[in-house]
Structures are given as structure tokens and as C-alpha cells.
Amino acid sequence: MEECIFCKIINKEIPSNIVYEDDEVLAFKDINPQAPVHIIAIPKKHVSSVMETKKTIIADIFDAIQKIAKEQGIDKSGFRVITNCGKDAGQTVNHLHFHILAGANLGEKIV
Ligand code: 5GP
Ligand code: ZN
Predict the structure, then answer these.
(1) Which residues contact 21 (CB under 8 A, 6 or more apart)?
(2) For 3-19, how does the pLDDT look when each residue is reduced to its tens digit (9 = 90+)?
(3) Does the annotation mark 46 as catalytic?
(4) Which of 36, 45, 2, 37 is nearest to 19 (CA)?
(5) First vs last C-alpha separation in the chain
(6) d(CA 100, CA 58)
(7) Which homologous superfamily does the CATH classification assign to the domain defined by 5-102?
(8) Position 1 pLDDT exceeds 90
């Protein structure tokens, strides 16, 4: 089966700017940033979207997001977490991912 692009990033088959990694989660800078800070956090296990995920994955992701927010210095100023699920949301990569947006007043910004 053809690997998805985010699995290739996990396996270091394609380069990315990694900002966080643990046994379950990888986070890297979005290639097309929509805010001064735009990080993508993903589970290392391939699941396609919110509709396929398990509770443990969500706990791992949000634990990592807390650490990333502190490391990036956006825990106090604030940030937005977005996940797109499916066609109408505009999900373009079918590997569950959470956008972390910060570094400016985000207003109504969506990705
Ligand atoms: P979606 O629209 O599926 O919610 O978001 C996918 C995100 O992945 C987009 O913001 C896009 O810029 C980002 N992205 C797609 N391909 C790559 C890549 O190869 N490297 C990185 N760093 N980000 C990517
Ligand atoms: Zn994948």
C-alpha cells in the first residue's frame, strides 16, 4: 500500500521541520503556514481522520500539544487547534492531524 505523505514524514523519507517527537506523536512546521506559528501534530500510527481515531490517540496528541505550546512560548498568549475531517472541511491529507495556530490575533482564521 502506498504510504501517505505524513507517514513518509514520520519515517523521515521526506524532510520536515520537526518541532516535537515522542513515541506516539510527531509535530512539524506546516509547509504553507497560515499564521506566524503553524505546526501540524500527528499520531505516528496512521489513522485517517477524527472518524477513525481512538481515545488514547487523542490523549497522546493533546498531551503533546500542551508541551509544544510551552516550548513554542504560546501557552500564555494563546493558540488555536483545528482538525479538518472529510471533504466539506477541506481535509487534504488523510492522516489525522491537528493544526496549531498562534503568534498573532487569529480573528476568524480557519485553515
Ligand atoms: P488539511 O487541509 O488536510 O487540514 O491540512 C493539511 C496541511 O498539511 C496543510 O496545511 C498543508 O500545508 C500541510 N502539508 C501538506 N503537505 C505537507 C508536507 O509535505 N510538509 C509539511 N510540512 N506540511 C504539509
Ligand atoms: Zn499516514
Answers:
(1) 27
(2) 899 999 999 999 999 99
(3) no
(4) 37
(5) 29
(6) 14
(7) HIT-like (3.30.428.10)
(8) no
Instruction: Decide if 64 contacts 31 (C-beta within 8 A).
Output: no
Phi-psi region of 56 (alpha: psi -120 to 50; beta: other; left: phi over 0): alpha
Cell numbers 513518509 correspond to 8
96 lines ligand 1 (CB under 6 A): no
26: which 3 cell numbers?
510527531
Please say whether the beta carbons of 57 and 24 come within 8 A. yes
Q: Whose CA is nearest to atom 18 of ligand 1?
A: 31
d(CA 87, CA 100): 20
Q: Ligand 1: which atom is nearest the Cα of residue 32?
A: 12
| Domain range list for the chain | 5-102
Which ligand number lies closest to the CA of residue 86? Answer: 1
Whether 50 contacts 85, CB under 8 Å? yes
